Amino acid sequence: MGVFTTNRRLPEVTFQKEKDFEEEVFANSKLLFGEKTILLDTKTLLKGNLLGGTIPDGFLFDLSDETDPKFYLIEVELAKHSFNSHIFPQITKFFAFFKNQEQRQDLTGKLFEIISSDKKLRGLFKKHLGDQEIFKFINDVVENSQNILIVIDGEKGEISQMGEVYTDTWGKMVKHIVLRKYEDRKDTVYHLEPDFEILEIVGDEKVAAERTSYDEEHHTDGVSENVVAIYRELKHRVLSINPELVINPTKSYISIKNDKNVAYIKMSKKKMNLIPMVPESTIRKHVKKYTVKSFPASVKKFWNGDCADIVIEHGDGMDELINVLTPIIQAEED
User: Fold this and answer.
1) Is pLDDT of 206 > 60?
2) Do 216 and 254 form a contact (C-beta atoms < 8 A)?
3) Do 118 and 44 reside in the same domain of the chain?
4) Nearest CA to 209 among 156, 280, 154, 136?
């Protein structure tokens, strides 16, 4: 396999040792994950039974959204390694760690100690956090954003299959991204599937196999009662406008669709994101009580059209949401 530049083909690099692949990921973390991310090499920082007897390859803090930072345990793997004997046991130990409050608190303390004692690292966090306390930030992000990211050098079907079977653990917490490197004596090209900015927003939906048996409970489990109530009210009102609409839960989001998708919904513990398939200018014209966030071109391409993100933390602007959705629902109905 290879990629092509203007006048030549770049062959794919095959990694024989996991250590070499890890070094590639860590050396290029800003390129792969974005300038507003911080990747810590945990194997040089942590020892012992802090995470239940297993140490991930890294901790990734994504600070690209100041209002919604993300935390990942990073595991770098080679596709040629056995899933059952190598990948599966490691990931299941991470689940146990996230469910253990004492271990999460221990990790928060250890990370704070590491960051506080390293002037360069401390400055890097303060650059992104401003006046926010580092300890509180670490504690909050570890408690509220519990993700596992597998970076792998090729397809591994078992990862998607686990997400389909164990929807409350693998399906919710594990995301994976395929990283390939192509190189000759002149150029180096990296290919990510999906791009990290897409993974952040919609998960590995297009990497994973399609599945139709996800339900709404998959998305509302662990979500605050307030957010669930907002979702139910929005669902009730759009269906009252057009009873023929289909509410379609998938692994990473819930779509509202008729002949095609007209909007997408994602829920987290304390907020709901609504992505209507209309131009951002139209959304901003109607929505005043919620934050509206722009999407990069790659994310709009994923959603297959012009759109923007409405961040919903309360129900006071429900009429605004309905005003945005009504024309596209009616257009689909007609």
Assistant:
1) no
2) yes
3) yes
4) 156
Same domain for 230 and 97? no
Assess whether pLDDT exceeds 60 at residue 116.
yes
User: Is 48 a residue whose pLDDT tops 60?
Assistant: no
DSSP character string of 139-180: HHHHHH--EEEEEESS--HHHHHHHHH-TTTHHHHEEEEEEE
> Is 16 inside a domain boundary?
yes
pLDDT average, residue stretch 20-32 = 95
Residues 291 and 190 in one domain: no
pLDDT band at 256 (very low <50, low <70, confident <90, very high): very high
Q: Of 316, 243, 309, which Cα lies nearest the Cα of 280?
A: 309
The answer to whether 182 and 9 have CB atoms below 8 angstroms apart is no
**Do both 150 and 269 map to the same domain?**
no
Expressed as residue numbers, the domain containing 172 is 2-202
* 321, 312 contact by CB (below 8 A): yes
- Please give the tally of structural domains in the chain: 2
